[in-house]
Amino acid sequence: MRFHVDEYIGLEQGSAQRFGNFLKERFFDKVQLHGVFYLNGNASDIGAECGRYTELLIQNPPDIVCMGIGVNTHIAFNDPHVADFNDPLLVKKVELDKVSRQQQVDDGCFDDLDKVPSAAVTLTVPALMRACFIYCIVPGVLKSKAIYHTLNSQMNEKHPSTILRRHENATLYLDPGSSSEIEKNVRPV
């Protein structure tokens, strides 16, 4: 089974910015896959949609999570102000912070901040951490401070990606840009 981990609330079904459409076009349509589940950010009852997806996750626990890290260290859409390392929920509605929304503009997904939705549905931190393996791919210099915090800041919700250090099978893939803050802050022995 394949799940996607977050979706904007309120974007038109065919919108290129919907993460489900992005994954379908770039990954899931490229190979024969069965059992692909998508979050519906246009559900008439978002609470019921969170419940539906939670049941699917309980019935089909993911073995592998493939994810990124946002410039504010968010994982999925667990921005610092909504991240909860002990969240009792597996899926929830969240309000996105301005930094996370601006990242979408800076990445070229939206023309301006006013067009970026302010809410989304996301898998929670505990839902992501339940997977046996986590593969986290983080390219680009704009993510360098987030990577520095991921590896060096105190492990707490202020920097949600720090939780990855608690997972015994989390692998972080970086490029020269995203690892540049680490290299600047390494002191010679």
- Cα-atom Rg, whole angstroms? 16 Å
Largest sheet report: 3 strands, antiparallel
- Count of helix runs: 6
Percent in helix:
25-40%
Classify the secondary structure makeup into a structural class. alpha/beta
Query: How would you sum up the global shape?
Result: globular
CATH C-level label of the domain at 2-133: Alpha Beta
List how many beta strands DSSP finds.
Answer: 8
Strand content: 15-25%
How would you describe this structure to a colleague?
It contains 6 helices and 8 strands. It is 28% helix and 17% strand. The protein has a domain at 2-133: Rossmann fold (3-Layer(aba) Sandwich). The model has no long low-confidence stretch (mean pLDDT 87). It has helices at residues 19-28, 46-59, 98-106, 125-129, 144-152, 180-184, and strands spanning 2-3, 6-8, 36-37, 64-67, 91-95, 119-123, 133-138, 170-174. The protein has 189 residues and is an alpha/beta fold. The strands form 3 sheets. A 3-stranded antiparallel β-sheet has the order 2-6-5. It has a 3-stranded parallel β-sheet with strand order 4-7-8, with no helix packed on it. It is globular.
